[in-house]
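Re: guanine structure - here you go.
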Amino acid sequence: MQQQVDSMAAEYGRTPSLVVIQVGNDPASTIYVRNKMRAAEFCHIRSQHLSLPDSITEQELCAHISRLNDNNDIDGILVQLPLPAHINEDTIIRSINAEKDVDGFHPDNAACLWLHQPLQTNHKASIYDPVPDYGCTIACTPKGILSMLASTGVELDGKRAVVIGRSPIVGKPMAKLLLDRQCTVTIAHSHTADLPAVCREADILIAAVGKPKLITKDCVKPGAIVIDVGISRLPDGTLSGDVDFEACKDIASFISPVPGGVGPMTVTMLMQNTIDCYKRRLNGKH
Ligand code: GUN
């Protein structure tokens, strides 16, 4: 990625740039933002961490975003979630120019994913380029998961996929991406009856709930691929995923750890999304 960024910067006379906005001092957000800033530096992407106080009003935050929307030198804007309770996340996400929405959370980007098929039908997924071009920004975590799936070498066409969780950030876009890769997809959630039986149908099981060790060995079909998106802090201070890793690791053919699995892939895809926003803006496709 560094070489790609360096050669584009030399060719176009401008380096891709990303602004990450953090409101308040939530410790988990601070770690996530730090990881994003480090990755940008590693990739030679120009980056800025805009740290704003908890007391900021929604209007003031929108004014910061508006200024960044209007700045032609900025390619990507990310507002770290969650936001303080007095700020409406939906309002903030909508206030980001969709061209600069490197998270892919803006309704224009989400709608583009849901309403369209990818522009190329002959795309060969690789870990570096896991999704075909939809002409819009795709959320980083589901994109990172497709990259992990590509790394397993498993053919997705015709597979049964179960996605647990229906958030607009992970569950829903994940389901659509897998559908477009010809999987038969079930979205399970907190009201799903007999969750273990539904999970056992899965060749590809993706847990994105945030409930530590929800997925026990009774939920995993032998040989299944298990991807753990959840990350929760336990009372003893350690981190846990949604999957009981120790119990499931010998049943699954591939299992992603927490921490260290999906998280780093999400950050990598954020860098790729920043580069893609830069390229689309340079090409005047928006
Ligand atoms: N908080 C947790 N995950 C994410 C993410 O992918 N993007 C943003 N903006 N905030 C998050």
